[in-house]
Specification:
single chain, Aspartate Aminotransferase, domain 2, four-stranded antiparallel sheet, 14 helices
Length: about 475
């Protein structure tokens, strides 16, 4: 493909993507293919000779689209959203075209410096304490990770390294990191994402899940009691991952209570607000972040709910040296004469290489402005409350938990098994797609506002489908 064909085919692909997104309602949100479907559609081995672009392009619909889950469909209500916008797509085109691997400032100064500035922009939009910002002149700052899972792992490993260094300095000179690590204990709530538990596995430390209150929140007294119990047993508490907006039910840990406990006990508190964090740019939701001043690190995903395409997970720390020192391996070929004047982000993450991800954050913030992004968040929250009203008006159903963001947890009144049957029936129907969850033995259904163009008509349609399927299911059960 030469440059002229690239110009032509690139424009064709832009048209295809635009048509796909604008007409996505016409596609079934969840595919009907079975495992192994794709192998039957393409040859067993790579072609010896080049194929025409027309043949390649035709296979998008023939091979790929039948197996695509359409996350941006207004009828896809599973999980949490994966953000999408045209400015972000355009930014990724530019990032791919530039193709730099921004592991040091010298490897592409613009890649590092834009990230520094835009993470400060975003931090100010969230009203983060100045200690988290580069512009404060302190040790804090932000970095774009791939996912919230990476951010949790990076902060846990940093906390572990910090604690081991402290132990070695204060000990008797005999450094037995293995013995100390076997006693390290990290905490999270019982509703924390599975990636938090996985971080404990990778970090080779015990991760304890603590019970939550009736609203799904981890409370300070529960954390304090766990710390005291573990210390009495000879264990060493060192890290808490508090969640704001859990995947299970969008519950919020009480960081105003847990933060002072962590500060008093010398424990690193990391706040994972992967989904809900975008909403904190709205003043009415910002109080949910109160207590962040106690956190050593804070993370959320603009790629979930802020129109920035995957992957873009923003992490801020109050003391960047605690992260960079934990991952600092500095071979001669990566050194440069301006070291120390700007961050070398390879020290702030697990991989060495990194894409120019700040471009899409920069494009999106400028294209929509703070007010535009706030309006988008508020629209989705209102849609969730509109769906909540439909559920409440039907005496067959009940709301599970509180509707705070763009997620509604609901269930048929009665046993878990009828709700399990309802979930299967709704998804088998195929017009919409939802997933279940379970908290303290109660099984329920989740409806998340995922598609960027979801509107009130889509919410009414989703409820129409659920109501019709429910009536059919209950009638069938009554006949048995």
């Amino acid at each position: 493909m030469d440059v002229e064909e690239f110009r032509k085919r690139g424009k064709e692909m832009v048209d295809y993507v635009a048509d796909y997104l604008e007409n996505i309602r016409e596609r079934r949100p969840f595919p009907t293919v079975t495992p192994g479907y794709l192998r039957e559609l393409i040859p067993d081995s790579a072609p010896e000779d080049p194929e025409s672009w027309d043949d390649i392009f035709a296979d998008i619909e023939r091979v790929i689209m039948p197996g695509v889950t359409h996350w941006d469909s207004p009828q896809f209500h599973s999980f949490f959203p994966t953000a999408n916008s045209y400015p972000a797509i355009i930014a990724d085109i530019l990032s791919d075209g530039i193709g730099n691997i921004g592991f040091t400032w010298a490897s592409s100064p613009a890649c590092t410096e834009l990230e520094v500035v835009v993470l400060d922009w975003l931090g100010k939009m969230l009203d983060l304490p100045p200690a988290f910002l580069f512009s404060s002149g302190g040790k804090g700052g932000g970095v774009i990770q791939g996912t919230a899972s990476e951010a949790t792992l990076v902060t846990l490993l940093s906390a572990r390294t910090q604690f081991l260094h402290k132990h070695n300095k204060s000990g008797d000179g005999h450094h037995d990191d293995g013995a100390v690590m076997s006693k390290l204990v990290a905490y999270c709530s019982a509703q924390a994402h599975s990636s938090v538990e996985r971080a404990g596995l990778i970090g080779a430390v015990t991760m304890k899940k603590l019970e939550t209150d009736e609203k799904g929140a981890l409370r300070g007294t529960t954390l304090q009691q766990a710390i005291e119990k573990d210390r009495a047993a000879g264990l060493i508490p060192f890290y808490l991952c508090a969640t704001l907006g859990t995947t299970l039910s969008c519950a919020f840990d009480n960081v105003l209570e847990c933060g002072p406990v962590c500060e008093k006990e010398g424990i690193w508190m990391h706040i994972d607000a992967a989904y809900a964090g975008s909403a904190f740019i709205c003043p009415e939701f910002r109080p949910l972040l109160n207590g962040v001043k106690y956190a050593m690190s804070f993370n959320f995903n603009p790629h979930k709910w802020m129109k920035v395409n995957f992957d873009c997970s923003a992490l801020w720390v109050q003391d960047s040296s605690l992260i960079s020192d934990a991952f600092n391996v500095d071979p001669l070929y990566l050194k440069h004469e301006n070291q120390g004047k700007m961050p070398d982000y390879r020290h702030w993450q697990i991989p060495l290489g990194r894409r120019f991800r700040s471009l899409k954050l920069w494009f999106v913030i400028r294209a929509y402005g703070l007010k535009g992004l706030q309006e988008y968040i508020r629209k989705d929250v209102q849609l969730a409350h509109d769906f909540e009203k439909l559920v409440v008006a039907d005496d067959r159903f009940e709301i599970f938990g509180e509707v705070v963001m763009g997620l509604v947890c609901f269930r048929l009144k009665g046993p878990n098994d009828v709700n399990e049957k309802l979930l299967k029936a709704v998804n088998d129907d195929g017009r919409i797609n939802i997933v279940p969850s379970s908290v303290k033995g109660t099984y329920f259904l989740r409806l998340a506002i995922c598609g960027s163009k979801t509107n009130n008509n889509d919410i009414n349609f989703a409820w129409k489908v659920i109501s019709e399927v429910t009536s059919k299911l209950l009638q069938e059960n009554a006949c048995k």
